[in-house]
TrEMBL record:
Keywords: Oxidoreductase. InterPro entries: NAD(P)-bd_dom_sf, SDR_fam. Pfam families: adh_short. Gene3D superfamilies: NAD(P)-binding Rossmann-like Domain. Belongs to the short-chain dehydrogenases/reductases (SDR) family. CDD domains: SDR_c. The keyword Oxidoreductase applies. GO terms for molecular function: oxidoreductase activity, acting on NAD(P)H, oxygen as acceptor. This is Short-chain alcohol dehydrogenase.
Amino acid sequence: MATMNDLQGKVAVVTGGAGGIGRAMGRRFGQEGMKVVLADVLAEPLDEATRALADDGIEALGVVADVTDYSSVESLAKEVLDRFGAVHVVCNNAGTGAVSEGYMWEHDLADWRWGIDVNVLGVIHGIKAFVPILLEQGEGHVVNTCSGNGGFAPIARGAMGGAATAVYPMTKAAVLCLTESLYTHLEMTGTRVRAHVLFPGGFLNTGIWESWRHRPTQYAATQERHTPDTTLEKVVDRFESAGVHIEFTPLETVADQVIDGIRADNFWMMGPPAPSDQVVSKKAASILARGEPDYLVDVLGKSAENTSESEGGKRR
Ligand SMILES: NC(=O)c1ccc[n+]([C@@H]2O[C@H](COP(=O)([O-])OP(=O)(O)OC[C@H]3O[C@@H](n4cnc5c(N)ncnc54)[C@H](O)[C@@H]3O)[C@@H](O)[C@H]2O)c1
């Protein structure tokens, strides 16, 4: 099956394009000679990111769009077609991070709704609005941003010393599942439109750690918070005090992974083999053996056996 190798002059849309990984992908697409549409719910950083691309001679359009709202994503698709007449690469990348505290039965329902609406429904909206356009064109790529945290297995013991959010990994498990269905459904139609799932690897310096800073009013907390909100600085401190030195993976590396994955037509957009791959092998072994879920690790990559005491948890 032929893939879209020549990206020059093609059109890429990136949701969550105002910052972090999305912004880096937008720049990388532009460097390939693509026309770039950055979409984000945050108008100011979006404007700044779009201008930065234009300043570098990249044909760029910024569209304020909320992926939780289907009519907003439909309008985004319309605006892209009005401006560029086509769409070739759609990155459903907008995401929100770990804002919940406590054990999962204590999480605020507003956190569940926010996480599901952005990370899951947002991807569904992107698929619904854009895939028919790609099918009509007969070529294109859909790249859904997943995470090893959920995509492989949940990291349920957090960097801050307690339970980590159950919301985020659940949504990322859903993203993998959705993308597997998308891959199959596209294949069934005989189209050249392809689906990919992106696993950004390593430790990334992005806004996701501090999503609470931009909590939308429709997902306002309904419970009083008992612990301070997470910051990237605090997470890094915790790692360093546990003897783990943090080196951030450049966001350009993730963007390269996307370009390489499109060119090679890889469903799995992943970096080189990493320690987290062991979670995948151990999980498969656990399922096949009908065994205990011994592949579950904490944020430092240690299994429950090693962390139960230090985290104050109890094993069954
Ligand atoms: N940073 C990591 O370590 C990491 C690892 C694996 C996967 N991811 C995933 O990568 C993607 C990008 O996250 P990031 O790390 O660059 O974080 P980020 O916070 O820097 O970027 C996410 C962007 O999504 C936007 N966004 C949030 N809600 C939105 C909405 N309703 N509509 C439109 N845009 C919205 C935000 O404004 C922000 O610009 C996310 O899906 C995230 O889950 C991140």
